[in-house]
Design goal:
319 residues; alpha/beta; 18% strand; Alpha/beta hydrolase; AB_hydrolase_fold
Length: 319
């Protein structure tokens, strides 16, 4: 689907614990360097899947074997009759993350692995990594050496009451009607800023990443809020992290000039506030003029983000 130089492998995960049939994940790989020195494994966010070939090029040019994972019910892993992106517990993703890591290490000769994740993936992966680090040998013995987070979802944006009373309502509805959709106002600001059919420069499958996003269900959001609570109590991921974010938030329903130079999805102050909860050595950096996905920002901000990754790789000894 991405053209020459990319392959995909389906990971069978068995019956869905949430009762939506058989579930799979999809591991995508780029043609690796002849003798890769490390591997990089990328995980997407909500209403997302892997299509960012520029990101793959960045890491392969630096000697990394590049892999990306489409989680269950997302992107290439979507199957008929399933609710896009739905899980009742973020820990269910451990199955495909464990298997993806096993395959990456097997295919690359047990070289070290650097992780990367965006938005909701930036919550899912640290939670998994913290659980992995609690096992004998921890993250390091599993071959993981660090993580790059791009606009990670560390808390619920919006009014303060949504993080207290609102969260209790979400939990209560999720117990009886988990697949009911939240009645949220429609908006295309962020999607329009990205896709070539609107104001953006990126071409991707609108079936898997619609301009207005997928509906949010109570059960899924309850799983996210439980994940937030675990993060806020403090994780121990066992490896250094780089956390990238925009330097400002600008919520909007319709696309405008501000949408192109700010985070239109998450509150960047919350990202800055909770970054230290990852544990180990954390480098948290704002990227001026970046979008929610800093690697899909306009050219100047995108270049600044990649330059920040380069500097951090050198600092962490991962060049």
């Amino acid at each position: 689907m991405l053209g020459a130089g990319y392959e995909q492998r389906t990971l069978d995960l068995g019956s869905d614990p949430d009762g939506e049939g058989e579930v799979v994940a999809t591991l995508v790989r780029a043609t690796p360097p002849t003798t890769p020195k490390r591997a990089f494994l990328w995980v997407h966010g909500f209403t997302d899947y892997f299509f960012q070939t520029e990101l793959a090029d960045f890491f392969t040019e630096r000697g990394y074997a590049f892999y990306a994972l489409d989680l269950r019910k997302c992107g290439r892993s979507t199957r008929p009759g399933q609710t896009p992106h739905y899980v009742s517990d973020l820990a269910l993703y451990d199955a495909e993350l464990d298997e993806a890591l096993r395959i990456v290490r097997e295919e690359t000769g047990e070289i070290e692995v650097l992780l990367g994740a965006h938005s909701t993936g930036g919550l899912i992966v640290p939670l998994w990594l913290s659980r992995l680090n609690a096992t004998p040998g921890g993250s390091r013995e599993a071959g993981i050496v660090g993580i790059v987070l791009d606009g990670p979802w560390f808390d619920l944006q919006g009014a303060a009451w949504m993080r207290s009373i609102g969260t209790q309502v979400i939990r209560a509805v999720a117990q009886v009607r988990p697949l009911e959709r939240l009645k949220l106002p429609p908006g295309d600001a962020y999607g329009s800023s990205l896709h070539v059919s609107a104001a953006g420069e990126w071409d991707y499958d609108l079936t898997w990443k619609p301009i207005t996003g997928f509906p949010v269900t109570y059960g899924w959001l309850n799983a996210v809020r439980r994940g937030h609570a675990i993060l806020h109590r403090g994780l121990d991921i066992g490896v250094p992290s780089l956390v990238l974010r925009s330097n400002r938030t600008r919520f909007a329903r319709k696309h405008g000039p501000d949408t192109d130079v700010s985070d239109a999805v998450l509150d960047v102050k919350q990202i800055a506030r909770w970054a230290g909860c990852l544990g180990d050595a954390v480098t948290s950096l704002p990227i001026p003029g970046a979008r929610h996905d800093v690697f899909l920002s306009q050219a100047e901000a995108r270049a600044a983000a990649y330059a920040a990754v380069d500097r951090w790789l050198g600092y962490a000894g991962l060049t």
